[in-house]
Automatic annotation (TrEMBL):
Provenance organism: Dethiosulfatarculus sandiegensis
Pathway: Metabolic intermediate biosynthesis; chorismate biosynthesis; chorismate from D-erythrose 4-phosphate and phosphoenolpyruvate: step 7/7
EC number: 4.2.3.5
Protein name per its UniProtKB record: Chorismate synthase
One of the record's GO molecular function terms: FMN binding
Reported function: This reaction introduces a second double bond into the aromatic ring system.
Amino acid sequence: MSSVFGKQLKVSTFGESHGPALGVLVDGLPAGLLIDQKRIQREMDRRRPGGSAMVSARKEADQVEILSGVSQGKSLGSPIALLVRNKNARSKDYRDLAEVFRPGHADFTYFQKYGIPPQPGGGRASGRETAARVAAGALARALLEPMGIAFFSCTVAVGGIKARKIDYEFSHTDPLHAADPDLARAMGEKVLAAREKGDSVGGVVQVEVRGAPAGWGDPVFDKLDAALAGAWFSIGGVKGVEIGSGFEAAARLGSENNDQMDENGFLSNHAGGILGGISSGQSLLARLAVKPTPSISRPQSTRDLSGRQREIEIKGRHDPCLCPRVGPVAEAMAALVLADACLCQRALQGESR
Ligand SMILES: Cc1cc2nc3c(=O)[nH]c(=O)nc-3n(C[C@H](O)[C@H](O)[C@H](O)COP(=O)(O)O)c2cc1C
């Protein structure tokens, strides 16, 4: 069950939802980068649960411990190990679920592949694993942010209600990270109404990266859009990725969809900042389709380990809508892909120039 990611910047996460801790080893970050623990913590706080009715009530401080690779606030160039201890795991919530496959979860497929019975909180498949990704993403930002690269995300649709405007500033103040101040309330009510009925809601998260230079990414199998899409699809619950115009491009004419240029640069950005798998220097723009949270407390039919039909109702603490949790993780994955692309580009220039 490999958990390693990246070429020049190798990221390896470990840990289960209800184990003692989870964490990440990041290998390949250059020496001399400013590593600000408070900055890492700020990213962790944006992802962590608790604090509103829109997210799981599991209360984790998600305090990051830096175990290696950093001295006097700077990277040493050696592997950086970050640890996050699980403090609020409640395995008893999963006692009745130890022998049944929860619909919409990885329980059935993990059992088929590894013979592992359902683990408390989903074990390795839990959204909790993404805390380690966010910690690693904060290290990637330490490389990219001094270059003027900035990351944004917000919730642009919930339960079919679609944002008409994007206000990242406002989204920081909204429990759903909703993009549109005029529709945030309606989105919130949709989530709470579903939650009241023991149900959950899906949505769409937008991710934007500003300031990435032109020329990053590989042109053939490891295209930048392929790497980003792969990274985003690796987040639990993400079921679709659109880059730039995405599926809308399929209904357009070439004359409508091409990004024309003049002496000052591009006149539009339907490509979402990537052409031929290489960054164009425009903003990278993507939208992620996020499925409704699979753990719902309504009665559902499933099977147990011996193949018998069973009816279950899932209790415990769950996010009624995954979108506000997914945004910061999606930014972290974008930061890791771009930091890797940046270091690959430096290696290429070192070799050929
Ligand atoms: C940050 C984050 C938090 C999540 N929280 C929950 C949750 O509280 N309850 C739940 O059922 N699924 C949650 N999920 C989604 C499941 O982990 C995911 O749907 C499941 O592992 C199956 O994977 P798949 O949806 O990619 O097929 C979360 C995912 C992420 C990224």
